[in-house]
């Protein structure tokens, strides 16, 4: 008896004590977010980027350090994966410990800018006039520019030349949706698999769907427009006809690439970052632009990072930060970044021309980047992530058959309106 | 309705117990003025590290979660630290959301079906391994494999096996003439697929606990029963099940709490999709906070708090049960 009695009592005391102290803790936490501590001492500058694949011995690290040396400081570089980087940046801004420089995925720039944690390029005295407007757009909020793209990538259509040759399809004939669908019919008729893309229920799914969405003439402010429905019906039609595998619903871009590398698929929608891998594939590959519905190049969404400078309490640090940013954004700097990564297209015309002079085979990609479109452009800014979530959910619902494209997109439009109002 | 009654019930329980609990440590009422004696200070001193630990790692995060769910933490407000107090608006929005009924059903299905199968299979295996035979130890160890594998490995493997076009499960089914089943990409089967994977993951836990419970059932009871002419099924129903009841209850309750909060398996296999087809409360909360380009901490925290309350109810049931068991 004694034994049983004792146990709950101790437990309850602990609970009560914890509850009381929790209140104390809560009061003290209120005072926290006030002061801004600077990211490092005056000779060490902090730098965050989303490239954990490049470790301390990589060319990229050397390139970053070189920019630091030129500015007379040491750069302390930390790499996070893309989603974690946004969260880390928000947390550090809340704690007042932001790094001096962040390389940030472009749709996140307007989100962070909205919090007031980023400086404008005007304040830094940096000129952004040379940067292609379609690429810079993602960093512009209410007329202010919050960063400079250090390079851009986008999507295009890779094809397996052997399969196309065997099926008698000329890649140059693919200029609109009808000719692409006809090509898919031809290759599947010849016993191959047609096309694979990423319809996963994350930002990647929206990223991959947007070229078709925009290529039909649809607009992100009206997800249930007839054009949008046509785009989704195109994808759904491919699935129903067996031109695309059912697994696209859960495929990420990496998975689709793996599928393509097996040599079974005629086409894959994928990005600039696979250029090297495509060259090393066991079969001959090629690239064509993603076609718009009625011909021409569909605007694909731009990918790539912006270099941004978070607000610091010690404004004396800005001078060196400016030098570091400049080092990354000269035409030579852009080309060097492009070469270090092998897939980054410079965001200025001068940089693009220099890159093409060195590697003319990247022409398709440079052209794709020029006709690409920022996801947060059209002044969507911080509304984009919410619209995007509604969009990828609609894609999932339609492809999986739980709703028709029309129903799925109508629901998406209602969700997006509710989320952004 | 349940929402409003639960916290009060929990609160009163703490208060009532707390008054009784503090009596031995710090005398209540006017006597308190005299101050605690040296030995009481020492007691507080010894308890302090534990209390600090509890506050830092349990109470503060919990409080922060409540705080997040009662304010409108936009990204901007999160950084600036000036969120608007919105009371229960976040909870209202969660209840009104079209995701809510789906998540409720999915959570209930996922939890109940997982537990039912995990427990039944776990119990069957435990009874099977009770009779020692050659290699029984080795086989039992094999059944622990799901427990030893990192979740990312086992979930990814399940996702590959259940792949619509290239998965091994479909290729086996097709060789028996059953057509392709889109396990993870059809709204009808996605929840079933993640539940199957979760059952597989949970069997070792049930097996281990129930097996150790069986060790406490004296062998003479079975001997006596078999002398009385009881067959295997009779022995199981009249000896194993009743004698194992306390252990079973705790296994199921712990399983419930574990299963309610599963995110990783579902997230890796389907990210809660297609659409919302396999979204449970835990996945929903995770998606709001970390799954999109724009963290939405307040609704995420609201969903998380609902989940904590549900788990808390089962937690108290567990304590109650344990207490009764110790009393007997």
TrEMBL record, chain A:
<dbReference type="InterPro" id="IPR050490">
    <property type="entry name" value="Bact_solute-bd_prot1"/>
</dbReference>
<protein>
    <submittedName>
        <fullName>Extracellular solute-binding protein</fullName>
    </submittedName>
</protein>
<feature type="region of interest" description="Disordered">
    <location>
        <begin position="402"/>
        <end position="421"/>
    </location>
</feature>
<feature type="signal peptide">
    <location>
        <begin position="1"/>
        <end position="24"/>
    </location>
</feature>
<keyword id="KW-0732">Signal</keyword>
<dbReference type="Pfam" id="PF13416">
    <property type="entry name" value="SBP_bac_8"/>
</dbReference>
<dbReference type="InterPro" id="IPR006059">
    <property type="entry name" value="SBP"/>
</dbReference>
<feature type="compositionally biased region" description="Low complexity">
    <location>
        <begin position="408"/>
        <end position="421"/>
    </location>
</feature>
């Amino acid at each position: 008896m004694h034994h049983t009695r004792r146990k709950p009592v101790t437990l309850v005391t602990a609970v009560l004590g914890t509850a009381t102290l929790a209140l104390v803790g809560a009061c003290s936490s209120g005072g926290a977010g006030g002061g801004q501590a600077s990211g490092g001492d005056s000779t060490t500058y902090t730098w965050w980027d989303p490239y954990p694949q490049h470790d301390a011995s990589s060319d990229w690290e050397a390139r970053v350090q070189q920019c630091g040396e030129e500015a007379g400081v040491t750069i302390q570089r930390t790499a996070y994966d893309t989603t974690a980087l946004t969260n880390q940046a928000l947390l550090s801004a809340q704690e007042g410990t932001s790094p001096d420089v962040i390389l940030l995925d472009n749709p996140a720039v307007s989100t962070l800018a909205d919090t007031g944690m980023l400086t404008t390029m005007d304040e830094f005295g940096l000129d952004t006039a040379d940067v292609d407007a379609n690429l810079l757009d993602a960093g512009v909020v209410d007329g202010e520019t919050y960063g400079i793209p250090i390079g851009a990538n986008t999507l295009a259509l890779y094809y397996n030349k052997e399969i196309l040759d065997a099926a008698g399809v000329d890649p140059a004939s693919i200029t609109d949706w009808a000719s692409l669908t006809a090509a898919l019919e031809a290759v599947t008729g010849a016993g191959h698999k047609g096309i694979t893309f990423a319809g996963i229920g994350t930002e990647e799914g929206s990223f991959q769907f947007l070229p078709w969405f925009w290529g039909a003439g649809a607009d992100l402010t009206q997800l249930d427009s007839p054009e949008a429905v046509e785009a989704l019906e195109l994808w759904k039609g491919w699935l129903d006809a067996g031109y695309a595998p059912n697994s696209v619903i859960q495929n990420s871009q990496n998975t689709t690439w793996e599928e393509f590398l097996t040599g079974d698929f005629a086409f894959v929608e994928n990005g600039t970052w696979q250029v090297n891998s495509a060259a090393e594939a066991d079969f001959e590959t090629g690239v064509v632009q993603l076609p718009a519905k009625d011909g021409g190049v569909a605007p694909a969404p731009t990918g790539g990072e912006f270099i941004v400078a978070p607000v610091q309490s010690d404004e004396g640090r800005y001078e060196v930060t400016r030098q570091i940013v400049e080092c990354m954004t000269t035409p030579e700097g852009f080309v060097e970044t492009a070469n270090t990564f092998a897939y980054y297209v410079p965001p200025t015309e001068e940089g693009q021309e220099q890159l093409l002079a060195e590697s003319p085979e990247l022409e398709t990609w440079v052209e794709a980047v020029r006709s690409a479109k920022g996801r947060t452009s059209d002044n969507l800014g911080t509304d984009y992530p919410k619209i995007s979530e509604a969009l990828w959910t609609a894609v999932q619902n339609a492809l999986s058959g739980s709703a028709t494209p029309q129903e799925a997109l109508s629901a998406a439009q209602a969700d997006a309106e509710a989320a952004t109002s | 309705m349940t929402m409003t009654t639960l916290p009060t019930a929990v609160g009163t329980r703490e208060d009532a117990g707390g008054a009784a609990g503090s009596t031995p440590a710090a005398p209540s009422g006017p006597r308190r003025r005299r101050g605690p004696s040296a030995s009481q200070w020492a007691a507080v001193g010894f308890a302090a590290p534990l209390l600090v630990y509890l506050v830092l790692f349990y109470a503060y995060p919990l409080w922060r979660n409540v705080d997040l769910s009662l304010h409108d933490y936009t990204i901007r407000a999160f950084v600036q630290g000036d969120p608007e107090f919105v009371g229960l608006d976040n909870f209202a929005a969660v209840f009104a959301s079209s995701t809510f009924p789906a998540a409720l059903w999915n959570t209930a299905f996922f939890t109940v079906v997982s537990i039912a199968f995990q427990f039944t299979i776990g119990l069957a295996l435990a009874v099977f391994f009770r009779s020692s035979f050659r290699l029984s130890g080795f086989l039992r160890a094999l059944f622990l494999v799901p427990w030893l594998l990192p979740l990312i490995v086992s979930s990814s493997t399940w996702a590959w096996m259940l792949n619509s076009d290239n998965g091994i499960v479909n290729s086996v089914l097709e060789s028996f003439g059953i057509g392709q089943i889109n396990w993870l990409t059809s709204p009808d089967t996605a929840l079933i697929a993640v539940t199957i994977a979760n059952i597989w993951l949970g069997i070792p836990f049930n097996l281990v606990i129930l097996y150790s419970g069986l060790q406490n059932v004296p062998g003479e009871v079975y001997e006596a029963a078999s002398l009385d002419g009881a067959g295997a099924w009779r022995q199981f129903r009249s000896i194993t099940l009743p004698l194992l009841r306390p252990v079973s209850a705790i296994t199921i309750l712990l399983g419930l709490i574990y299963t309610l909060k599963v995110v990783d398996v579902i997230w890796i296999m389907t990210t809660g999709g297609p659409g919302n087809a396999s979204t449970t409360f835990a996945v929903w909360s995770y998606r709001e906070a970390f799954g999109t380009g724009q963290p939405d901490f307040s609704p995420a925290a609201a969903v998380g708090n609902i989940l904590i309350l549900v788990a808390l109810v089962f937690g108290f049931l567990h304590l109650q049960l344990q207490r009764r068991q110790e009393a007997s």
